[in-house]
Amino acid sequence: MDRFRMIFQYFQSNSESVMNGICGLLALASVKMYTSFDFSCPCLPQYNMAYGLGIMFVPPIILFLCGLILNRQSLVMLEEWRRPPGHRKKDLAVIRYMCSSIMQRAMVAPVVWIIVTLLDGKCLICAFSGSMDPKKFVGMANVSTVQVQQLLAKVPCKDEELMGNNTSRKAVSRYLRCWSQALGWSILLILIIAAFLARWLRPCFNQATLLQARHWSNYIDIEQKIFEESCCEHSRLFAHECILHFFESMRQEIKLHSFSSPREGERAEGEEDLLRGITDQDQVNKLLKTWYYEKPPLDVSQAHQR
Amino acid sequence: MDKFRMIFQFFQSNQESFMNGICGIMALASTQMYSAFDFNCPCLPHYNLAYGLGILLVPPFILFLLGFVLNNNISMLAEEWRRPQGQRGKDPAVLRYMFCSMAQRALIAPVVWVSVTLLDGKCITCAFCTSVPVESLGNASYPRLSQGEIQRVLARIPCRDIYNGQQLIANEVAVRYLRCISQALGWCFVLLMTILAFLVRSLRPCFSQAAFLKSRYWSHYIDIERKLFDETCAEHARSFAKVCIQQFFEGMSTDLAAARFHLPRKVPADAGEAAEKLLGITDEGTMNMALKSWHRCKPPLHLHPPALPTRNGWAGEGQPPPHPCAPRRETAAYYSWV
């Protein structure tokens, strides 16, 4: 009993670790999605750029939105932002803190996708092979403009009969992959430096405000959870009372309508309680029918006034 | 008992996470189903479209219905919708909330199927291979074939081993083109669904939070009330059965004593619990009679107060009871010891 309560409490107070866990899972999911996705460049002049850049940028948007949807805190933040002030003032610093922490977590999976895409290189090769300068590559210098566009567009496709093992195809491919990987590593380096600086320099600025904002955002989160829990507990007790009240009223109705005088039996206390005066097939059927046709009103105040 | 209550409470308050878990499992099941399914394009002009679009659209419909069937709350929703008003008003907002939350969860597996199908590309390639623009992608100057012939050749694009139109349009070019379009459609579809889900989730706190809290509480209440009622009825049924059977055995031992004109055996004072549990049935013949009577003539579903024993309708071996299994409505005749 105590152990369950402890586990429950642990999860409640560590919603941050739950959020971090979800963030990590989404990042892993994005890598898995990329590896299982069958990238297939169309190798046609007008379509390459759209396809390549589309694959590079549309899934990150999807992953970002997923990161926002799956994060429970985003709902809490929106509620806090839109609620009427009532008796409790709204602190914009808390809302800003929550917003920034949600955004940071939601950005992880898209960034992972973009970096994996760049380090792999296929997207950039597909998107920019048509924009290469043919003069840089041997074998393409003396081909007509229209044809060179066609040839360059077919570079990403290895099984193309026209290009096949052509050395200039490999040269273009290597060149673009080199650029793509350089871009990928640079972005990764910049992001890590930015994260490092942000974490190190944060205590130098507004530490007190930060502590306050973090405390109150945590508080709002826990308060929401405990409210939901209390509502659950309350509805359970309410239902319990309502049903007991219903059985009681059934018992009284039966007493009123039956003509035999009540006989006091010496049944065991436990059995009497559980039977609640319903001791007949007809009575049980009547009870079940009444439960369906006439549910009792949602009002247990009489039970409490007795 | 307390521990079970705690677990019950945990799952109830985390009912959402339980239902989300089922959603996730169905989504995984749908991807698994797709990869296990052996897609087999017919490669014939009119059949391709029907097959491709059928595989794209029919399984999601099945998965959607399955999502409703597997959801326990569907019967709760139906019950709440159809019950007579009685003393308790009906709130349409609660019904709408219940339906919406069930529909949202049921939509996940179909959306996953459609996305996986589009991103894979086989369905669209099969369905639309006859609509490939041959003029721009292929060899328009190929010796003129009739429209029907061209359609037949193009229809074989998904089946590489029987494709004979390499001069008309290269197989790889056509497949790449169709797959590119299919994947673009797939990503757009996923983006659209994600944006919709995001809007639905984020606009709700901005507009109708109070109404939402109310609907959620009462839908949860209806669920708990139903479960507790079932639990109470089960408890009641258990007690009913226990008392009924106890009275059957008591009646049996009374009848037995009466039929043999024996005085009730005096149970030794220090016999204890075991003698009590035997309920006066202490030999093989009697037990066999009891079992036969239980089968031939079950007692009526009517419990009576314990102080006044009643006949069971069994008057001894030689006399079969007049109405072996008619349930008696009126109170039984009493056999007084006085």
From TrEMBL, chain A:
TM annotation in the entry: 49-70, 106-130, 182-201
Domain of life of the native organism: Eukaryota
Keyword list, A-Z: Ion channel, Ion transport, Membrane, Transmembrane, Transmembrane helix, Transport
Membrane topology: Multi-pass membrane protein
GO MF terms, alphabetically ordered: monoatomic cation channel activity
Protein name as annotated: CAHM3 protein
Gene Ontology BP, a term: ATP export
Localisation per UniProt entry: Membrane
Cellular component GO terms held in the UniProt record: plasma membrane
KW Transport (keyword) present: yes
InterPro entries found in the cross-reference section: CALHM
Family: Belongs to the CALHM family.
From TrEMBL, chain B:
Record-linked InterPro entries: CALHM (IPR029569)
Superkingdom, taxonomy of origin: Eukaryota
Cellular location(s): Membrane
Gene Ontology molecular function terms on file: monoatomic cation channel activity
Family stated for the protein in its record: Belongs to the CALHM family.
Keyword Ion transport in record: yes
Gene from which this protein is expressed: Calhm1
An individual GO BP term: ATP export
Pfam families referenced in this protein's UniProt entry, alphabetically: Ca_hom_mod
Full protein name: CAHM1 protein
Membrane topology note: Multi-pass membrane protein
Residue stretches spanning the membrane: 21-37, 49-70, 184-203
Organismal lineage: Eukaryota, Metazoa, Chordata, Craniata, Vertebrata
GO cellular component, one term: plasma membrane
Main location: membrane
Gene source species: Cinclus mexicanus
Sorted UniProt keywords: Ion channel, Ion transport, Membrane, Transmembrane, Transmembrane helix, Transport
UniProt keyword Transport present: yes
